[in-house]
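Task 17 of the worksheet. Students: predict the tertiary structure of the chain below and write it out as structure tokens. Keep your answer in the requested format; marks are given for formatting as well as content.
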Amino acid sequence: MVAVGTLKKLDEKGVGKALLKEARLENGGPSCTLLQFADDKGQMLSARIYQAEKGDNPHFLYFPAEFETDETLELLAKGLNSVGFTLVAFEYRGTGQSQGEFSLEDVFEDAETFYNAVKLWMEQQGRKGDLVVMGRSFGCTVAIHLAVKHQKEILCMLLESAFDSGKVFLERSGIDASHIPEGPIFENRAMMAEFKKPVMFIHSPRDVIQSLTEVEWLVAESRSKATQFQIAPSGTRQELANQVGDLYMEVVEQWVNLRRGIRPPRKRPRP
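Model answer:
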């Protein structure tokens, strides 16, 4: 699991706060509803539900990027909804309606609280769709850890702009990492080796935070033969988050549906 002692020291140095300095999750807008739930100390956390009509279609449990905004989240939700998928996006502490201050040490426990709240909401609403765990940028490390813990209950995982080395990720994100000890911080590679379900990796060839070669170390640890590595025709990871279009959704829809045993309709041959 994560190096808890190291994460606590990073929080004390203000690394978590610095990581989310560009996050702009403020107002969910009219297209979503708010799901609120309490942690074991009674502090309120929240998530945004962008609900598709069919409750037996997949539900994406989403962990946002450190640079996520209302606009990028709305764009992803609109795309997933267009193919019948529901998006439930977690709001980290200090963003949106979640109370408290963001903590690298606590975020994995918060993710577990979020997971249980979503399961309860689905049960109450009579929604029986498969669960897909998804993360973007920093959210990938939270997604990996949650997915490994609950892999028997989920269909698959989707990681956009993932990363292998936590120290490299922080350094290239403009955060002082001189005080960070050598060795894995988030254990992404080790955790991926424990995950047996299919994974789709989506990555930009122009990503300056994590190159294609570097993220391949993470991809190589996937245990499933159905895992895919998709290179997205885009700029940086922030630009990729703003370019969720029809082609992106077509690829995601077909790959997820194949995991459900649904094959895409045959295209008519051209005359």
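Marker's comment: Residues 155 and 260 are 8 Å apart (CA to CA). The first strand starts at residue 33 and ends at 38.
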